[in-house]
Amino acid sequence: MSRNNLGGIVQQKGTRHLMMRTLLFLTLGVFCLYYLIPLIVMIATSLKSLEEIRAGSLLSLPQDVTFDAWAKAWSSACVGVRCDGLKPFFWNSVAMVVPAVTISTILGALNGYALTKWRFPGADIIFALILFGAFIPFQVILLPMARTLGVLGLAGTIPGLVLVHVIYGLAFTTLFFRNFFIGVSSGIIQAAQIDGAGFFGIFFRIVLPMSLPAVVVTVIWQYTQICNDFLFGIAFTVGDSNPVTVALNNVVNTSTGVKEYNVDMAAAIIAALPTLAVYVIAGAYFVRGLSAGAVKG
Amino acid sequence: MSDIRLEMVKKNFGATEVIKGIDLAIDPGEFVVLVGPSGCGKSTLLNLIAGLETITEGNIYIGGKRVNDTPPRDRNIAMVFQSYALYPTKTVRNNITFGMVSRGIPKADQDAAVAEISTLLQIERLLSRKPGQLSGGQRQRVAMGRALVRKPDVFLFDEPLSNLDAKLRIEMRTEIKKLHQRLGKTIVYVTHDQIEAMTLASRIAVMDNGHIRQFADPKTIYEDPVDLFVAGFMGSPPMNMMPGKIRTLGGQCVVSTGGPEDEPLDFLLPPALSERACGQEGRDVILGLRPEAIFAAGTELPGANRFIFERPISVVEPTGPDTMILFHHAGLDVVARVRPEDARPEGTLFMFEADMEKAKLFDAKTTLRI
Ligand SMILES: Nc1ncnc2c1ncn2[C@@H]1O[C@H](COP(=O)(O)OP(=O)(O)OP(=O)(O)O)[C@@H](O)[C@H]1O
Ligand SMILES: [Mg+2]
């Protein structure tokens, strides 16, 4: 990759150049700080006690670090009338995210595979219709979807929410996989056909292992979308089946006398942790997969 | 071993006709090479035989059985693709065994087959590698191994050597020929390379624009082309094709070429040709002379029906064993093949001798051979 060679490029020398460089890094530093300050404030606040928050300023670092707020946010903060912390809702989110991501990714891969490698009349129209789903503002479908879930008997349940996320994730997952498979040589599919494999045999044994980069991109995309979703969560679940994003809102809005900023901050970070973790672990791969479209496996 | 028979096979992609009615009967154990310009439908024809495309009209028989509606896996064929189409995530071993795994062949038999094929193709040391870690020639061998291992009745090759460098191509060409002699299976082989076609084929089918122009053994294709297209397609450098007119000069039949800008040449036709071509004074014809039929005067054993003429040399192209000498005539650069020691510098007036026994005549309008 050319990126690896950049270090060897001959650089300009001289004071003018040095000044420009300094200016550049100063500007970058300022922007960095600008973006990081909210996070720093959140972490700092979550580690302070309530007294310290009241006494000190917003930007000061915690004098004596305590994890009480974290413990409370996790297991005893009141969410509405229930005071078990975010824990049960966090597991709700997990129970929703895992099947929703898995199912939408597999279906997207199957769609992309069928749309590119087993062309049928009207494939392009079907793809255009699926793609249209990526542009529908989600508010538009709230009412019809609620009605559908009601008819299916899934209203207010986690499986119902999974179904919603699978359906509205399909547009993107199909798009990702279709664009990946379009670059895969059809010769490989033909060779496998002559070798005696069928539609699913080729899919699971040849095509899916090849599409690892697309799988990674799609999983991360779906995971972040679904983890961070608030609208579908608040619209289609009730009370105990709320995902953590909705519960976070309820923690903050449940007022029992004093406003516990430290607990709110800790809760917010807990709710954001799953997506943050994925970004730290797989972010580089995500960017690479997106920009390359088809990274060689 | 199986024979392959095509009856009036047609293939349309939407409104475009790609294969326009092909009849072809390939005997069991034959090595048939399909040649033709790019886009004439060679790959499409191969895909039709393989069952990777559905035929629009006509019938295909393999081993006497009509296979129009048989899917590829049940045609008992194997195919080597131009791009090799190896499975990138599988090791060489698993690439080779994939077909057997799909068909549920016992593990022990698979191992025996892999052992046999990898010895034959000398790829034993590569079995645990992935295709990405192989050189072009090694990939080609693996692709071949994947096809061979199933012991099918028919092999289909789509330009299997086109991605290799010149030296490796010649080596693999010989390997393929040996393999065919050993296994005796029916092979249909597509290539752009006419030397490959001449050396490998038991019969060559020359295709043009969805039709087969001629289907015959290599010698016939070379010596007895049915029309200008086939004559021009085979041979390197290609046949010289000089437009001219039939004339009678002093009671003898000649083809006069060239003029008015350059001095005309009156090629005296041998008796066999003049019988067929003469009688129609002034008929427009094309005289075909392969470069090896024009040489330096007096350098070959004397023979009947030689025509000697003089022209200034315009270009000299040494190729090693022979030297090509070009001269301007009838608006083209005519190529003569001479021994290097007979070559003279450019601009020299040179005595050429044409062996008219080897001359071919074509009708200028129909392009058919006379
Ligand atoms: N799926 C398709 N849809 C439409 N046209 C096609 C399709 N496949 C091939 N063609 C057309 O059919 C013609 C023959 O294609 P084919 O691949 O058989 O050529 P070829 O003789 O193998 O050429 P080459 O020597 O370049 O490989 C071409 O004009 C091509 O554009
Ligand atoms: Mg082709």
Automatic annotation (TrEMBL), chain A:
Pfam families: BPD_transp_1. Keywords: Membrane, Transmembrane, Transmembrane helix, Transport. One of its GO terms (cellular component) is plasma membrane. It is a multi-pass membrane protein. It comes from the Bacteria. It is found in: Cell membrane. PROSITE patterns: ABC_TM1 (PS50928). Residues 90-282 form the ABC transmembrane type-1 domain. GO terms for biological process: transmembrane transport. InterPro entries: MetI-like (IPR000515), MetI-like_sf (IPR035906). Its main location: membrane. The chain crosses the membrane at residues 23-44, 89-113, 125-146, 158-181, 202-223, 265-287. Belongs to the binding-protein-dependent transport system permease family. This is L-arabinose transport system permease protein AraQ. It comes from Pelagimonas varians. The gene is araQ_2.
From TrEMBL, chain B:
One of its GO terms (molecular function) is ATP hydrolysis activity. InterPro entries: AAA+_ATPase, ABC_transporter-like_ATP-bd, ABC_transporter-like_CS, ABC_transpr_MalK-like, ABC_transpr_MalK/UgpC-like, Mo/tungstate-bd_C_term_dom, NA-bd_OB-fold, OB_MalK-like. GO terms for biological process: carbohydrate transport. It is an enzyme of class 3 (hydrolase). Coiled coil: none annotated. GO terms for cellular component: ATP-binding cassette (ABC) transporter complex, substrate-binding subunit-containing. Its EC number is 3.6.3.19. It comes from the Bacteria. Keywords: ATP-binding, Hydrolase, Nucleotide-binding, Transport. The keyword Transport applies. SUPFAM superfamilies: MOP-like, P-loop containing nucleoside triphosphate hydrolases. Residues 4-234 form the ABC transporter domain. Belongs to the ABC transporter superfamily. PANTHER family: ABC TRANSPORTER ATP-BINDING PROTEIN, MALTODEXTRIN IMPORT ATP-BINDING PROTEIN MSMX. This is Maltose/maltodextrin import ATP-binding protein MalK.
